[in-house]
Structures are given as C-alpha cells and as structure tokens.
C-alpha cells in the first residue's frame, strides 16, 4: 500500500487515474470536498462509489443530488462541463444505498461481489461529528462502523489503499 506522505500532489492526482474509489461520508463536509476535488483534478478516475445512508438507490441518488452535487463547491465542475455536467456525474459516480453500521454495509450479495472485485481505494470518512451525541451512538458509528469498513476492505481483491479519516475528541 502506498503512503500519502510519500507522494507529491502530482503523483496523488496520477494515482487516482483509472481507479475505482469507495467513499463513505460523502454527504459530510469533507466528503463533498473530496468528491469534488477528485472529479475536478482527475476526471479520468474510473468510478466513485459513494456509500450513502438511504433506504434504497432512488433515495441515495436524491441525497447525492441535493446534499453533494447541488452544493456551491461544484460550480467549477458545472461551468467546465456545462450541459454535460449531469452526464459526467452519472458516468463517474455510483451512489450505493447502505450504511457502515451494517455488516457489508447492508448491500446485497451481487452488489457486494461486484464491488469487492472493482475497488482500488477506500476512503472512510463516515463518522458522527456531533460531540453532544450519546456515547453509545457515537461509539457505534465511529468505532463499529470503522470495524465494518475494515472487514469489507479485507474482501476487496485489488485494494491498494484504505484511508481512514477520524473525528477529533472533544475533552
């Protein structure tokens, strides 16, 4: 596995070319920034699979549109692609209805098999950042969710990198 500290910005951009990346937490602040940045600086990324907490794929697509790609940060990409923006997003982003709280994210076995064969990189950014959250709820998301991501990563046959983004601890 490559270490980000060993790479300069150009090699990071090049590293994402033709890679399939699973991102959790894409509807959060850092997640949106990451998705936009990858699509803007490396349009040759193969696919971004965004795990979105939703009961079905239609709801996941709606959350993607309203909470991610409709945001101001995507204006540069919208300007660059013009009327082709929606097609570009549809080609590059695959929303997955699931939750890190569930084993295998709650994905069905066919989805899971296909995903495990395709994923090169996992970025786990899903977490609760509400520091007044009940301890057990925060523990479930921030600890058990990370454990589920690691268990999923172990099933990915061509995984090259797992990046875990953690929330800070408020004293």
From TrEMBL:
UniProt key word Oxidoreductase: yes
One BP annotation, GO: long-chain fatty-acyl-CoA metabolic process
Keyword field: Lipid biosynthesis, Lipid metabolism, NADP, Oxidoreductase
InterPro entries assigned: FAR, FAR_NAD-bd, NAD(P)-bd_dom_sf
Coiled coil: none
The organism's place on the tree of life at top rank: Eukaryota
Keyword Iron carried by entry: no
Catalytic reactions of this protein: a long-chain fatty acyl-CoA + 2 NADPH + 2 H(+) = a long-chain primary fatty alcohol + 2 NADP(+) + CoA
Primary enzyme class: oxidoreductase
EC nos: 1.2.1.84
A GO molecular-function annotation: alcohol-forming long-chain fatty acyl-CoA reductase activity
Domain Thioester reductase (TE): 23-169
Annotated PANTHER family: FATTY ACYL-COA REDUCTASE 3, MALE STERILITY PROTEIN 2-RELATED
Stated family: Belongs to the fatty acyl-CoA reductase family.
Role summary: Catalyzes the reduction of fatty acyl-CoA to fatty alcohols.
Protein name: Fatty acyl-CoA reductase
Organism for this UniProt entry: Triticum turgidum subsp. durum (Durum wheat)
Source organism phylogeny: Eukaryota, Viridiplantae, Streptophyta, Embryophyta, Tracheophyta
């Amino acid at each position: 596995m490559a270490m980000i500290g060993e790479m300069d910005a150009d090699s990071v951009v090049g590293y994402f070319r033709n890679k399939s990346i699973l991102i959790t937490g894409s509807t959060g602040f850092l997640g949106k920034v990451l998705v936009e940045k990858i699509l803007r600086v490396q349009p040759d990324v193969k696919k971004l699979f965004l795990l979105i907490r939703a009961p079905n794929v239609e709801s996941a697509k709606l959350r993607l549109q309203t909470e991610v790609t409709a945001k101001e940060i995507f204006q540069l990409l919208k300007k660059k692609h013009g009327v082709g923006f929606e097609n570009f997003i549809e080609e590059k982003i695959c929303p997955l209805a699931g939750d890190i709280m569930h084993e295998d994210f709650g994905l069905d076995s066919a989805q899971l098999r296909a995903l495990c064969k395709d994923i090169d990189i996992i970025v786990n950014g899903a977490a609760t950042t509400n520091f007044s959250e009940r301890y057990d709820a925060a523990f479930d998301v921030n600890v058990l969710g990370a454990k589920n991501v690691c268990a999923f990563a172990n099933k990915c046959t061509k995984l090259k990198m797992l990046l875990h983004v953690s929330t800070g601890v408020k004293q």
